[in-house]
Design goal:
With 197 residues, this protein is mainly alpha-helical. The chain has helices at residues 3-13, 18-25, 29-36, 44-54, 58-61, 64-92, 96-99, 124-144, 150-173, 177-196; strands at residues 101-104, 110-112. Helix content is 71%, strand content 4%. A two-stranded antiparallel ribbon has the order 1-2. A hairpin with a 5-residue loop joins β1 and β2 (110-112). α9 (150-173) runs antiparallel to α10 (177-196). It starts with a helix and ends with a helix. It comes from Sphaerochaeta globosa (strain ATCC BAA-1886 / DSM 22777 / Buddy) (Spirochaeta sp. (strain Buddy)). This is Helix-turn-helix domain protein. One of its GO terms (molecular function) is DNA binding.
């Protein structure tokens, strides 16, 4: 007997509608319907709630193939979320270009990476925008990391890497050696994460 057949049988034997079962395991009626028609499997948390509700073990609810498929899905989701978390943290670090002092002169003034080498006046707003944009994007990545689908998670990593590369190119073209080195380190770290993926 497959999971979807077992779920439907247990729900019927307990006299629950799909909506009532959904309320008990904190999912929608549509999700229960999807599970009962075999178009998806619950995550481990929902599976444990279902097993507890019906007074059975998770093994009794799932077949061995379904358990393996569920474990593989959970591992992929965990890896994707950790990559999004690391990219988000690296993107937020870009804001340090504005605030991180690298040295102080003899008069008590400190210089940030951004202010060390003068750049043309018309490039300053563009550079500041390209420093703030990845940082803001990193905050969004961190806020949405657990809510992203697999497709959007992959796209967000590519957008993050593209923003960092644009910032790096601008800093190199403006002859900003220290900020370029800092952003290059962030890009290399993202590259290692992507290669490891």
């Amino acid at each position: 007997m497959q999971f979807h057949e077992k779920l439907k049988a247990y729900r019927s034997s307990y006299g629950l509608t799909q909506e009532q079962l959904g309320e008990k395991v904190f999912v929608s009626r549509v999700t229960i319907s999807k599970w009962e028609t075999g178009r998806g499997l619950p995550n481990l948390g929902s599976l444990q709630q279902l097993a507890s509700l019906f007074g059975i073990s998770v093994d009794e609810l799932l077949g061995s193939n379904e358990l393996v498929a569920l474990a593989q899905t959970e591992v992929k989701n965990t890896v994707r979320q950790s990559h999004t978390l690391m990219f988000g943290l690296l993107d937020v670090l870009c804001v340090l270009l504005v605030f991180l002092p690298i040295f102080a002169d003899g008069k008590g003034h400190s210089f940030t990476l951004y202010a060390f080498y003068p750049i043309a006046l018309f490039l300053q707003p563009l550079m500041m925008a390209l420093v703030i944009l990845p940082s803001a994007f990193g905050v969004v990545e961190l806020a949405l990391q657990s809510r992203l689908s697999e497709i959007w998670g992959s796209r967000i990593l590519k957008i993050s890497l593209t923003l960092s590369l644009l910032l790096l190119l601008l800093l190199v073209n403006c002859r900003q050696p220290y900020p370029s080195t800092f952003v290059l380190c962030l890009v290399v770290a993202k590259g290692f994460i992507l290669i490891k993926r």
